[in-house]
Amino acid sequence: MDRQALLEQIPGLRRYARALTGDAWTADDLVQDTLERACAKWRLWRVGSDLRAWLFTVMHNLHVSQLRQTARQGELARPLELGELAQEPAAPAAPVDGSIDLQRCLLRLPEEQRVALLLVTLEDLSYAEVARITGVPVGTVMSRLSRARSRLQELMEATAAPARADGQQTPALRRLK
């Protein structure tokens, strides 16, 4: 086992896990589980192949397994849509950092779209690498990425539109060329 090569991958694994789960503790647990599984299954990694892609595959499979296990236990909390709330959530008292809104919007994307988006944009992996990691065709990765980008833009525009004093939404600004 090349310990140094494995250690060099930890920052990327942590970054992806935090963006994927939206929770630092859960992300750290996922990274730890990934590293444990990688060490236990090290003989499955082919020397000369992309270690980074292999580790992301291990992490992806662990994350999917954890989601399935949680769903079987009936504890899976699906994201709430704003229309399902009994009352409108109160606006934050202080200005909110845009990265917080981005994180919230990312977490509202369907899992498969969020995975594709994060692997391509955050981890700068190719479509082919994402397809290998997730076990789907390249065309599916491209489709999921397109839908994720569109949905994320819709969500970000919806959170950026501030409410007026009379309670009505201010229309989102359009970009002009």
Tell me what you see in this structure.
- The chain contains 8 helices and no strands.
- With 177 residues, the protein is mostly helical.
- It has 2 domains: 1-76, Rna Polymerase Sigma Factor, Chain: A, CATH 1.10.1740; 97-162, Arc Repressor Mutant, subunit A (Orthogonal Bundle), CATH 1.10.10.10.
- α4 crosses α7.
- The termini are far apart.
- The mean pLDDT is 79.
Describe the secondary structure blueprint for this structure.
Layout: H1 3-8, H2 10-21, H3 24-40, H4 51-72, H5 98-108, H6 111-122, H7 127-134, H8 138-160
| Count of separate DSSP helical elements | 8
Strand content: under 5%
CATH architecture group name of the largest domain: Orthogonal Bundle
**Residue-averaged pLDDT:** 79
Order of helices and strands: HHHHHHHH
The total strand number stands at: 0
Using brief descriptors, characterize the structure shown.
177 residues, mainly alpha, Rna Polymerase Sigma Factor, Chain: A, Arc Repressor Mutant, subunit A, 2 domains, 8 helices, 0% strand
